[in-house]
Amino acid sequence: MGKLGIWGDNKMGQFGIVPSETNPLDFKYSQISTRFDPEYGVLWTQMNPVGIPCCSKELLEDLYHHHKTIENSGGKVQIGSQLHSVHFSVVSSLTPRVFNLGGDLRLFSALIKNKDRQALLKYSTLCLDLMFCRMNHFKSPLITISLVQGDALGGGLEAALTSDVIIAERGTKMGFPEMLFNLIPGHGAFSMVARKIGVNLAEKLILSGKVYPVEELHGLGLVDVLVEKGEGEEAIHDYVAKRSRNANGYMALQKAKQRFNPLTYQEMMDITNIWVDAALNLGEKDLKVMDRFARSQHKLFGNGELTEPVVETPLGEVSHSGEVEQKIVWTRRKIERRKAEISLVL
């Protein structure tokens, strides 16, 4: 990967991870895999994190470097002596049954306990910078797609929302569970959801702390295309083949949408600062819940493989978890009990 630099102030490109080379396929990463399908110009970015499939600093740095390479290339990839345009950028996950579980809870807990605002803000700004790069189509005339074949929680769902289109397989779950430890998602969730399905629904989804079946979110319009389990990649092929026939008009529509209701970097940065301040205000009980979530994730993914462990949930019950549904958030009964503990008013 490109040479890492020093984190600076809150501006795009602040992290010194920007490569001098401009071919996105030239780099090998430890946390992501890439490939290019020349037939329709599809560049695949597949998250492949080591250990817990969350937004670790290592994964974020790989994604940021990759995103800036696409931007610096002008949306081009070189294969041999031929230069190809990227018409579609697809982000997906290689972790079975997981797209991404969101923020690095163990890191959050440690930084909050140390009252390290600067480090929290640096992490959050890295998230924001790589998300904003994708939301702006890498400054190239291309279409972005999120293929969600597994659960997308918190920051993982925020990452999926940075694309023009979300294609998801049945049986997956999505949501913002941050309210269960008295926090909100802090990297654009409210802004992106409100622009897509409305302010009231955005507030409901965030305040509920629930994890929803993807079928329900498709009904609300948050998920654009719903396909059967195991048919996600085929759905991508069908979608890009269809869109390739009217790509010019579709890109014009995306530009019109952005002009009509633009989401600015400053808006997202302001909300990021709100999130950092709220995180530093969490109490001991809230941090204990966060730590339980982190321990449960570690038991599931600590060796980097999906296993069938016995998982202790945040509420002290024991259940077998062969699925990544994580009983800590999936069942309504536990969600309602935690709401009562933190006196959540809906």
Distance between the termini: 45 Å
CATH homologous superfamily designation of the largest domain = 2-enoyl-CoA Hydratase, Chain A, domain 1
Cα-atom radius of gyration? 19 Å
Mean pLDDT: 84
Taken from the alpha-carbon principal axes, the silhouette is globular
What is the tally of helical segments? Answer: 13
Largest sheet: 6 strands, mixed
Helix content: 40-55%
Cross-sheet strand order for the largest sheet: 1-2-5-7-9-12
CATH class of the largest domain: Alpha Beta
CATH architecture tag of the largest domain: Alpha-Beta Complex
Number of strands: 14
- Which stretches are low in confidence, meaning pLDDT under 50 for 5 or more residues running? 1-18, 304-346
* CATH fold-level label of the largest domain: 2-enoyl-CoA Hydratase, Chain A, domain 1
Total number of distinct structural domains? 2
Helix and strand run: EEHEEEEHHEEHEEHHEHEHHHHEEHH
Q: How much strand?
A: 15-25%
* Structural class by sheet pairing and helices: alpha/beta
Write up this protein.
The protein is α/β, with parallel strands linked by helices. The protein has helices at residues 57-72, 105-113, 117-135, 155-161, 189-197, 199-208, 214-220, 232-244, 247-260, 265-280, 284-301, 327-330, 332-341, and strands spanning 32-37, 42-47, 76-79, 82-85, 88-93, 98-100, 143-148, 151-153, 165-169, 173-175, 211-213, 225-227, 310-312, 318-320. Strands 1-2-5-7-9-12 form a six-stranded mixed beta sheet, with helices on both faces. Strands 6-8-10-11 form a four-stranded mixed beta sheet. Strand 13 (310-312) and strand 14 form a beta hairpin. The longest helix is centred in the middle third of the chain and has 19 residues, at 117-135. The model is unreliable at 1-18 and 304-346 (pLDDT under 50).
